[in-house]
Specification:
By secondary structure, the protein is an alpha/beta fold. The protein is built from 5 helices and 7 strands, in the order E-H-E-H-E-E-H-H-E-H-E-E. A 7-stranded mixed sheet has the order 3-2-4-5-1-6-7, sandwiched between helices.
């Protein structure tokens, strides 16, 4: 099994930038850096965020193999070699893409199947890589209702599952990483 690292924080907290640096630091000399980008350009703001992330990777001193993967991240596993370092950015977007692809999101069975699919896909990636770094957003801690509550519950359960499997868990706030689980960053 690969080293599993979970990096979370609020929107624009610096978690993706930190995750990219962490991935580069883990890459073996013969290894490849894979970036699994789950974002879809659904509006102007998202298009700008995707472009900024692409620019940041392109201007870095490391070479990334980027796979646009808004759903079905497990399909990438068969293309990885055992010394690959994989950065999945991000579970928040992935869950949204998987859960709300149709009207089934209201069905509890579909919700559980979606969560299980993401967990299985993460396990596939983890089995096929040297290190797997997973990025996700923290949501507010206020009571929610309807669609947002379903989403927040599923995301919270995914976060707990990932952290239970993780070697390290890092919370990034205002660009400052804080180790929450593991040996150190």
């Amino acid at each position: 099994m690969a080293q599993l690292i979970f990096i979370t924080g609020g929107v624009r907290s610096g978690k993706s930038r930190f995750a990219e640096k962490r991935a580069a630091s883990l890459r073996p000399t013969s290894g490849t850096l894979h970036y699994l980008a789950c974002g879809q350009p659904s509006d102007d703001e998202m298009q700008k965020r995707i472009a900024r992330h692409q620019h940041d990777r392109a201007s870095a001193n490391v070479s990334w193999e980027t796979v646009e993967c808004p759903t079905d991240i497990g399909s990438v596993a068969s293309h990885l070699n055992n010394n690959a370092v994989v950065l999945l950015d991000c579970v928040t977007t992935l869950l949204s893409n998987e859960l709300f692809q149709n009207e089934n999101w209201r069905d509890e069975t579909f919700q559980q199947q979606t969560k299980q699919k993401i967990q299985n896909d993460i396990e596939k990636l983890n089995e096929r890589s040297e290190a797997l770094i997973i990025v996700s957003n923290e949501l507010s801690h206020e009571p929610l209702s309807g669609l947002v509550d379903v989403y927040a519950q599923q995301l919270g359960e995914l976060h707990q599952w990932i952290v239970s499997k993780a070697d390290e868990a890092v919370l990034v706030e205002n660009g400052v990483p804080r180790l929450m689980k593991g040996e150190g960053i």
